[in-house]
Amino acid sequence: MSHYDFVVIGAGVIGTSVAHHLAALGAKSVLVLERGTIGAGTTSQSSGLLRTHYSVRQNVELARSSWWAFNNFAEYVGDEEASCGLVKCGYMICAPEGDKLDPLRASLDAQRDMGIEVQLLGRDEARERLPIASFDAAALIGYEPEAGFADAYLVATSFAKSARRRGVKIIEGATVTGVIREGRRVVGVETTAGNFSCGTLISTQNIWTPELAGWIGVSLPVKPERHTVLALECDQGAYTFKMPAFKDLGSPGMLYFRSYGGSQMLVSEGVVGETLNAPETEQGDISLDYVAEVGAQVAERFPAYETAGLASSWTGVYDVTPDWNPVLGNVGDVEGLVVGFGFSGHGFKLSPGIGKLLAQHALGQPTDVSLAPYALDRFSTGALLVGKYGSGAVS
Ligand SMILES: Cc1cc2nc3c(=O)[nH]c(=O)nc-3n(C[C@H](O)[C@H](O)[C@H](O)COP(=O)(O)OP(=O)(O)OC[C@H]3O[C@@H](n4cnc5c(N)ncnc54)[C@H](O)[C@@H]3O)c2cc1C
């Protein structure tokens, strides 16, 4: 049986980031096993928004730890040709009078206390930045100039390329079917490409994490939830790359928006989606009634989009935990196992930081940011990381 010091299951943006960071931090023997192809899981379905705005303070810290990587991506992965497709358009978030107002104010204050550049905009200033939107109902508008969006698939494939350059072996088309244990310790994996022994196993399986739960006999609370993304086209209201990404806490779907391709609008809901019976990333049905319902909410905020057309649409699946925040670190008393799952629709923006933290943890090094708040046992102790905006991916 071949031996690797570290085996990573899954080559999404999290697994490839872990592999890159393990190698960058000096690990000499790393294997990544991927059932399909690099980045083709839920990573390829991402909307790619990057912001540090969160109502859970710990998440702000995690997002901040990733920001340098996105801003200096070529240098970060050590490849002058690498790009993460960053569009640094800024992020605007607004709330009307009502139950979202105080949480927004508190979250913006917390960001500023942490030294993050956040501006409060008047309605006219907001209109200057996003002239296609109406802000008549906005009671509070926050703006994060450093934010934007990038391409999750590009990031995953770039991390994979960097990892391979540093000696990591990545096998695609290899399914892990079980773990090999000696007492409480995980010592290897069974796969369709043969068995491998390892010092530490790192699972970054996203919606397929219940497979791991079955292998080790421990409950890992995560469910697959499907979400829909629409791209709308409107001759009178092009959404350009210069216009900020936008979160409308006042809309029933807590919609988020960004430019898509420099002229179209990408829009999706930030509330609970459709729970699936099994983890799968196949495309779901998008009914015309659903498009009309979201379209009406869009037109409420973007009047010219009353007559917009649907350019394209797709579905993607979130790995949702009970508090919509990830689980990072060890699993109970199981030794030789580290997990990173449950990103609940907001893991891309955290991926460089989380990859580094999980790599540091697996290597037995101190972590840049504490993993303690993200421990699995918070679901039994009740120390949940519940966001102030209710269930949804702002968190
Ligand atoms: C529609 C949508 C919009 C999103 N928008 C944003 C956003 O705007 N901003 C943001 O920050 N985040 C966003 N996210 C979330 C973000 O994209 C994800 O959190 C992130 O991509 C998850 O990466 P991952 O590596 O955990 O998962 P994946 O990319 O799903 O990777 C897991 C991999 O593990 C492999 N695997 C699983 N089990 C096995 C096994 N037994 N053997 C071998 N391989 C296995 C799978 O094949 C898969 O490739 C969005 C997600 C979706 C779906």
TrEMBL record:
EC numbers for this chain: 1.-.-.-
Keyword Glycoprotein: no
GO cellular component, one term: cytoplasm
Top EC class, one word: oxidoreductase
InterPro entries recorded: FAD-dep_OxRdtase, FAD/NAD-bd_sf
Molecular function via GO: oxidoreductase activity
Any Pfam family hit: DAO
FAD dependent oxidoreductase domain location: 5-360
Alphabetized UniProt keyword annotations: Oxidoreductase
Protein name, per record: FAD-binding oxidoreductase
Organism classification: Bacteria, Pseudomonadati, Pseudomonadota, Betaproteobacteria, Burkholderiales
